[in-house]
Design goal:
With 527 residues, the protein is of the alpha+beta class. Helices cover 23% and strands 35% of the residues. The radius of gyration is 42 Å and the shape is elongated.
Length: 527
């Protein structure tokens, strides 16, 4: 009998003992709560460390697909810069370069807040290296395709309208683009993008969905009204008497003590199979279905799908300013009228003094190098998003005298942030060069009488030769064009294009020597 109350007290809760020992119980609860708060972060940190170590071990063994989720969970439990660095490196090895690039940017910002300049510099360097090979996808939505309620998604995630027409970094692989709008048939397209590739997906104008337009919105079933006092429509307009307000399956569904509950605009609600009545009007019955409202004029047309900013077959135009160095190795040519000069050579009868002209005499020049400034242009067509074919011209004035005016066919291909091109060029080139003398030709039949020489120096009086002269030649050759994309600005408007910095080493063979040019240009390519 004495043991029973003791056992009862042992089994009782702290609340049962509160009147007798409330302070002790509260202290115990407070201690337990404090221990829980202290232990919980420690447990999370330990779990994060274990996951991070396991992820790093898997990554070293090449099991990147298994490693990244563990490191990501570790960062979720304990967000630290060291863990974020490991996560970015794992995603980079996994090939998710856009994800890794974004994480390197976040890492740089976190390191800057922490004052860790070394980690910040490392994150910036890693991010800059990845940025050169980022795939970029542009979702082009032409104005004709924009309808009310249009939603564009990428891999299931909605894309804000402000980002339409903007190139966005994306991980390599297959992605799904879809579009939907009320009363329109949904559209979707799969696109595969490679590392460093640029692609544009044009969202077409969605076709009308006839089945959706014909199907009325079903009304909720409700019991027939029991002598409603009065009918009301929304804000009071279009009141419906019993049996007139809303024509449903039971001839007028109504809420208690109300008539047919209509839309907030004051229109009568229509039941299944019936049109909606306007203000002050009852809903039409089965025999008098109201015709559907005419769509707006913008939706009445069915425009064709818009073109991508880099759509195949579109024109491509580039214009820019150019400058560089012009080197001429033209050792012979003419500087004008040479008839004032003469030369002599041996013939069987003795010595012959022959007058000069442009056919038998030519001047000799020293090599010349000088800067030039001008412009360059390209016009062509886009065979694909990354392949353009057309014609290129390059022209400019050489400081100190001379010019360059060449052009010809060109083809350029995009590789990541670089455009590589090959051009065939032809045109006149002129340079002011120092005159070293004049030579006249010896006829071949008397070469043996002139010690085997085919030409001889002209008898020019001292001071009669100009110090320098403009030497011109028609040159043929080509150039290799390397262009870096400084800014890629695709859009649905006419300004769609890219800002390019280009260098074009050029080699050309003139009729009288060689010509070398090293132009650089800054231009904008519209496509």
């Amino acid at each position: 009998m004495l043991a029973s109350p003791w056992r009862a007290r042992r089994r009782g809760s702290c609340l049962d003992a509160l009147p007798r020992g409330g302070r002790s119980c509260a202290r115990l609860a407070g201690v337990a709560f404090a221990l829980a708060l202290a232990v919980s972060p420690g447990v999370a940190f330990a779990q994060a460390e274990a996951l991070l170590d396991e992820g790093k071990s898997l990554m070293k063994r090449g099991k990147v697909a298994e490693a990244c989720p563990k490191i990501e969970e570790s960062y979720r439990l304990s967000p630290r810069s060291a863990t974020l660095l490991a996560l970015a490196m794992c995603h980079e090895k996994q090939g998710k370069v856009a994800t890794a690039w974004s994480e390197y940017i976040d890492l740089g910002a976190a390191a800057r807040k922490e004052g860790n300049k070394r980690l910040e510099a490392d994150a910036k360097a890693r991010g800059a290296k990845l940025e050169l090979s980022l795939p970029r996808l542009t979702l082009s939505v032409p104005r004709a395709a924009v309808v009310e309620g249009l939603e564009v998604t990428l891999d299931g995630a909605p894309v804000d309208g402000a980002l339409w027409g903007q190139a966005r970094p994306i991980d390599p692989g297959q992605h799904k683009v879809s579009a939907s709008a009320p009363g329109r048939k949904p559209w979707e397209k799969s696109v595969t993008i490679k590392r460093g590739e640029r692609k544009t997906v044009a969202v077409p104008a969605l076709a009308k969905d006839a089945s959706a337009a014909a199907q009325p919105a079903p009304a909720a079933e409700a019991p027939a009204p029991a002598a409603p006092e009065k009918g009301s429509a929304g804000s009071g307009d279009g009141a419906a008497e019993p049996g007139k307000g809303a024509a449903g399956a039971a001839r007028g569904a109504a809420a208690p003590e109300k008539g047919a509950v209509a839309a907030a605009s004051g229109k009568g609600a229509a039941g299944p199979g019936k049109g909606a009545a306007g203000p002050g009007k009852a809903a039409a019955g089965p025999e008098t279905d109201a015709p559907p409202a005419a769509p707006p004029a913008a939706e009445e047309q069915e425009p064709s799908s818009g073109s991508s900013p880099r759509h195949t077959g579109s024109f491509v135009i580039q214009a820019g300013v150019a400058g560089g160095a012009l080197i001429g190795l033209m050792d012979s040519g003419s500087f004008g009228d040479l008839s004032a000069y003469s030369y002599s050579y041996n013939i069987p009868e003795g010595e012959l003094i022959a007058p000069c002209d442009d056919e038998v005499c030519h001047a000799s020049f020293d090599p010349a190098i000088g800067p030039f400034a001008g412009g360059e242009a390209f016009i062509g067509v886009a065979l694909s998003e990354d392949l353009h074919l057309g014609a290129r011209v390059l022209g400019g004035y050489r400081f100190g005298g001379g010019y360059l005016a060449v052009g010809g066919p060109t083809v350029s291909m995009r590789l990541g942030r670089l455009w590589l091109g090959l051009s065939g060029l032809v045109g006149p080139v002129a340079q002011q060069a120092k005159v070293t003398g004049i030579k006249g030709e010896i006829p071949s039949e008397v070469v043996h009488l002139n010690y085997g020489r085919s030409e001889v120096a002209v008898n020019a009086r001292e001071g009669s030769l100009p110090e320098s002269a403009l030497v011109e030649t028609l040159a043929f050759g080509g150039s290799v064009d390397v262009s870096l994309v400084l800014a890629d600005l695709p859009s649905a408007g006419w300004t769609s294009g890219a800002l390019l910095l280009s260098v074009s080493p050029t080699v050309m063979k003139g009729l009288d020597g060689w010509v070398f040019a090293a132009p650089a240009s800054l231009g904008y390519r519209f496509y």
